Amino acid sequence: MKIGAKKAIIIGATGLVGLALIEQLQSSDDFESITVVVRKKTDKLDAYTKVTQFVLEDFLLLNDEDVNGFTHAFSCLGSTIKQAGSKDKFYAIDYEINAHFADLIQDKNIHLLIVSALGANANSPIFYNKVKGQLEDYLKKLSIYKLSIFQPSLLIGKRSEVRLLEDTAQTLFKLVEKTWTKPFKYKPISAEQLAHTMVIAAQTQTAAFKLYDNLAIQQTQ
Asked: Can you give the residue ranges of the Semialdehyde dehydrogenase NAD-binding domain (predicted)?
């Protein structure tokens, strides 16, 4: 490995943001390898020469040895209550797996970059936002070498699964996006823009912790 070369491990790699992130890491000279943790092998990932697929049916089985040797750990893992099937299942995905991933990274020289959501707040009456906020609060208490949290608004892009509310919102956004030329707090962003911001953060962040809100994501060049 060349001096300074970066090695990434990703959970949530097959979703909208995860695939956009892989695309950008693949084309980055700074990253020499990308390990993606998947529940089953995905043929589409074979097209990326830097990618190695680590098949693991239960992400909670990830252990310390599995994350050793990486410089950056990315989590694009997230669901919705409808997609997960219940509040308990949503919590198991969005909180428990992400918290476990972060636990393994503690006290290692690994930069953790994780996708949260605009509105994340542990005291929110909205369950989705509450869980996201609880996770953020938990991450901040850990001994993580470097932490980046990203809070996007509605994400624009073609998902592999149907999300009716988001698909409807995307359709409406496309009708008015030409009038939304300036950044503003709730403006939807593309998965590619979020992935781009994550890669820039991985390359340039020096602070031990940084929160990238939706405005910051929009403005990243």
From this structure: 8-83
